[in-house]
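During the first year of the project, the team set up a workflow for recording each protein of interest as an amino acid sequence followed immediately by a discrete structure-token representation. This format lets reviewers and collaborators read both layers of information side by side without switching files. As required by the reporting guidelines, we include two representative entries from the current panel. The first entry is reproduced here exactly as it appears in our internal archive.
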Amino acid sequence: MKTTNKEWTLTLRRDGGPESLSLGDQVYEYLSEQIIRGTIQYGDRLNIKTMAAELNVSPMPIRDALKRLEMEKIVIIKPRSTCYVRVPTKRITLEAVEARRMLEVFAVQEVYSRITAEELSNLNSILDEMGRLVRRTVSMRTRAVIDEYIELDRRFHTEICALARNEYINRFYRETSIHLNMSFRYGVGVCHGIEATYRDHQEICRHLSENSEKAVHVIEAHLLQSKQNILNEPTFQMIED
């Protein structure tokens, strides 16, 4: 793994204000984000001493971060200060899909009747970016385009959960998102109708802006279709049980 951040810090926002994290938490957030984005990929070997030197920290926060990722079944720790990022399995992928559906449907149920236009602004901004990508690439589906769409889709669904303003939902969804995006970048269930998923996202935003309960039904149907897409994907049949 390569990074150019010799003096590296990370601050997360909670409840609208900045909160400094421990080095272990910062490293955990950094590694999680790199895995979600595909910079660190399934099967990659991570060396504690190398990462500590690259991030300009001691080995201890690296070990702490990797222990958390091991508990979340993201990495497998080996002797001699090395570990590997897990390759997705059918069971883990489907469990993540079900967890995602429960979290997102709950979030929409909680907020649809009282959400404001201001609170929807981030979601609508992501939708606009998706629309520009879909219109620009109607006849082109390169790996780069798919990766860009995966990232926008991740941001869209993460924002859905963030609308609930519940730290536990955000935390559980982040873990779920890591597993899902590892699978998507493995090629599982990602190329089934970008235009169709974009239209679903439009419908979700429209119903939320109208404070309509239909938003709940659309998000649930959308996520059930996503699960079916994964089950129908030949690549899914090739990964381990």
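The second entry, processed by the same pipeline in the following quarter, appears below.
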Amino acid sequence: MDGTGNPWYEADLAIRGDRITAVGRLAGRPANQIINARGLVVAPGFIDIHSHGGRGVAQNPALESAVRQGMTTLIEGNDGGSPVPLGPALDKLAATPTSINIGYFIGQGAIRRNVVGLVNRKATAAEIARMKELARQGMLDGAFGLSTGLFYIPGNFTPTEEVIELAKVVAPFGGIHVSHMRDEAAGILDSVRETIRIGEEGGLPTQLTHHKIVGRPNWGRSTETLELVEQARARGVDVTIDQYPYTASHTGSSALFPQWAQEGGSKALAERLKAPDMRKRIIAEMIILLRDNRGGGDPKNVQFSRCEFDPSLAGKTLADVTRARSLEPTFENAANAAIDIQLKGGCSAIYHAIREDDVERIMRSPWTMVASDGEAPIFGKASPSTFGIAASCARA
């Protein structure tokens, strides 16, 4: 399978050093070594378009989780997060001997944090000009495009029009736009429309990154999101999809908190939680998030994967933690337990809130590629998602 989109075909492959030198009927050609791969699949190295492998490559340059699954290129800087400026980080990466190629997007959220901060307001004309300058410099430094994390702060505070202005800067360089969309639950259709609009008005290819349908009330809506993609492509928009093949997502425990409450960062959130009326409002919205969104309808569906302040929490669920406080795992009690965890520094967590039918439907789309959303882990010390992409794809 040669990676061009053509059907598979039977052929011989000749390799010299690290290069393919011939493909075809090569019987009788001299070779120092012959590998009998009859009945197996030979393919070029895979590109992991949504990775966070760059953040740990200095500690784990072998990146076995990727290499052992045939990945030869990781793309970092996703979800709106990247170094700003990008050039020094790429220079440091180039000086690190790795087993794999690593590229970067320039992150819109990181740019906005650098210029505007973590405040929930529109950027001024001068700030937009500065952000466009940073996006342009990121492309000159070697970025492959612009990533947005409109679910996270400060990306969530960004009007669509502001993102489009940065997309217009990236487009002439041949860059693409990839987006962790603003809402992957009740607002999923509007989020897909927004991602398409950024590409259409920004003049560049646009991608729904780790596309999924979160929350029981929203299951099945992949039929509608895929239809929106088909309609956009029919009118000439280059819109594509990537996904990880799991029925769970993996991000910080902050995903259980409304974005407006996180304005200003962790210290500002802590101050809001001290005010009784504000805390009551935050808990009310957390209950909705646990019921209809990332919580998957039950606190047991939130499973902590890594907690630096208390490693013993790894593997336990929010329901477990709530019961350990001698409380029934109701949504309200679970919300209070999550608040205590967040105030101590937070954890990374696995959210079991996706249905298999949606995963498979998205995977079958001809416009979908598979990505890990994984880091550069050492085996046994990280979430298993990074190690299981190939096996999951084969099963699905």
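For the second entry, the following points were noted during internal review. The radius of gyration is 22 Å. Confidence is low (pLDDT under 50) at residues 390-396. Both points are flagged for discussion at the upcoming steering committee meeting.
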